[in-house]
Every structure is written in structure tokens, then in C-alpha cells.
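Researcher: Here's the sequence for the chain we discussed earlier.
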Amino acid sequence: MSRRLLGAALAAAVLAAGCASSSKPKPAPLESFTAQLAARPVWNASVGSVDFPLMPALRGNTLVLAGGDGRVLALQADSGRELWRASAGTQISAGVGSDGRFASVVTRDNELLTFEGGKLLWKQRLGSRVVTAPLVAGERVFVMGVDRVVQAFDAIDGQQLWKLQRPGEPLTLLQPGVLAPFKDTLLVGQGPRLAAVDPLQGTLRWEVAVALPRGANEVERLADLVGPAQRNGDVVCARAFQAAVGCVDAQRGSLLWAKNVGGTMAVGGDARQVVGADASDRISAWNAASGELAWSSDKLLNRDLSGALLLERAAVFGDAQGYVHFLSRDSGQTLQRLSTDGSAVVGTPMRAGDAVIVITRKGGVFAFRPE
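Model: Thanks. This is the structure I predict for it:
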């Protein structure tokens, strides 16, 4: 096992030990509220149990999902109707990326699999474990390992096109990182830095540090960028694990602002606001242009909140008991609360048209329509 992979496993063990501590604070009780936002269930489906932070791939009206047991399926986002179904034949460690035609997942055996319309096209053995969902764009499949090595493959035949391997930190985070498109550029998280890569050649264009890690040891200095990143126009915002939240001008390759704040889950953002929960689930909202704090809320402390989604009126979070919270983006006040299947909401809620889609640990896929 390489030093980087050992480091990733060590970091995961440290984090897991912290989560399993008997002294973990009790979650804040749910407050009573008067609903100020109507929302109704639209459809639900099942993808099997999900033991990784699943972020579905949405292209047009096609929603592609993957379950931990290896099933891969495509649904109509507006109705939940199944379009096709496939199987990886083994457990999945990261999924799923799709451009609407091709869909790719990575198995726990470190194999990259690519499907077209439910048919397996090819497999490729990878050199390290993968926990970040592949990105499929421009008939290419991009993959980033826990060692932060980035590779590109031809989506049609699986031929490796390039590989980018850079010096990195001795420890890396066993949690999905940043791997996203931006115009003609591939954005990747490289430790606490957001890097721009030429998707055709695999060469570095620029990189910007979102956080400056500090600490007495390697675990405390762990500050990898947490995915998914949020893009609005030329601005891309992301969280650096337990270190900072920041926004980058991805056209110029320059840092706009960063705030030192802990936290482990992805932020939500748009042109007006960036919202996220810290390690204790204290929720903060920052002005997207300046980084100035707009408000903070302690209403959902220690409820193991998911990543954040921003709607026109609300910031949306899931929690460990399967509740979906709609909070006023002006004040943090509870506007609505919906239940799912009682298991934890995984990953980050997603917007699909006029619906909000959440996925639970039991594999429930729930679509709600705020009105």
C-alpha cells in the first residue's frame, strides 16, 4: 500500500473513530414551526442501499443513479419512470457520472465501468481507490483517485488518453472531491487547491489555494476540497475540509474570498449566496460576492446534515433521520420539513427542473416539488 493510500485510510479511520465516540453530542430536537412553503412529493424510487455519498448525474430530463450493490439505473427526472437498468456485477465505491449517453461508475475492485443505454461498453483497471464520481463530458471519462491522480479515458473504447500525477500531501481525504467541467477546462481538487486542467492534454493551466492548512500534525492539516463544487457563471465555490469555505474566479484563476470555518460537507451556492453547515451543523450563509456573513443558525446542531442546496426561497439540507429541511435563505427560519424513509440523507440534495431530489442510506430516491 502506498504512503498516499495508507494516509487516506488513516484519515478515514481517524474520522470514523471520532464519529463513533460515545461522547458525541445529541442532535438538537426538532422545533415546531408554521409551514411557510408548500411542498409535495412527486415520485419515489429505490436504488438499493447506498453506503457512499451519492450525487446523481442529471442531463436534461435524465437522472442516472447507482446503488452500493452495483445497480445502475436511469430515470426520467420529472416522473421517476425507469429508462434503463444495468449492473456493475459487484459493489460500487463511487458513482455515477453521465453525459446522458454514457454512464460511468467505479467498483470497490478499482475498476472503471462505462455503460451506454444500460449496456456495458468497457472496463478499465485503475491504480488506486476512487471515491469521487467520474465525470463524463466530450466523449471522455475523467477519474480522480484518492491519491488525487487524474486520468482521462475515451468514452467509446476505454483507451487511456492521459494521466496527471502531481506531488501531493501525505494524507488525502476518503471523501468525494472536486471534479467538474468549466467551459473548456477541467476543474479538479488537489488538496486544498482548485486546479484547472486542459481536458485534451492533461496539463495544468492554473491553481488557486482555497485554504492554507494549519495544524500540529498531518491529520490536522488535512484540507482537501470537498465535492461537489458550486458554479455560478465564472465563480466556483467549495469547502476545504475542516478549514475554509471560498470562491474562485475560474475564468481568471484567482481567489475571490475565503473564510476560515470548519465543516465536512459541500456548500450550496448561487449568484447571491453561499450556504453550508460546519462540523457541529451550525449553518452559515455568506454573501457570494464578498464573503460577508449574512446569518447563522443553530437550529439543527449535531443532526449530521448533508450538503446544501439553494433554491429561490430556501436552503435545503437533509439529516441523519431522513428529514429534509427547507430554511429561509434570508434568515435561516424553518419554512418546511419533510420526511423520507427514516434513514440518513446521503450526499447533497439536487435540483431537477422544479423538483428537489434526495437520496437516503436505504436507497430511497425521493422527489419533492416546492410550490
